[in-house]
Amino acid sequence: MNFQSFGFLAFLALTTAVCLAAGRRSRPLAATCLTLACLVFYIAGGGWAALLVLTAGLAVSAAAVGYLTAPAPVPAGGGGSSEYGKSPIQRRRCLILAAAWHVGVLAVFKYAGFFTGGAVSLGWSPLGLSFFTFQQLWLLKEAYTGSFYPGPGDSLPLYAFFFPTVVSGPILRPQAFFPQLHEERFLHPGGRDFAAAAYAIAAGMAKKVLLADNLGAVVDSGWEHLRQLSAPAAWLVILGYTLQLYFDFSGYCDIAAGAARLLGLRLPLNFDSPYRSLSVGEFWKRWHITLTSFLRECLYFPLGGSRRGTARAYCNILIVFLISGLWHGAGWPFLIWGGLHGLAQVAERAWGAGREKLPGLLRWALTFAFVNGAWVFFRAPGVSQALTLLRCAVTADFRPPADWLTKGVFTKEAEALGMLLPAARPWIGPALAYGLLAAALLAALWPHNAQRRMDDFRPTPWRAAVLALLLAWSILSFTGVTTFIYSNF
Question: Of the listed 102, 288, 328, 341, which one is catalytic?
Answer without folding.
Answer: 328
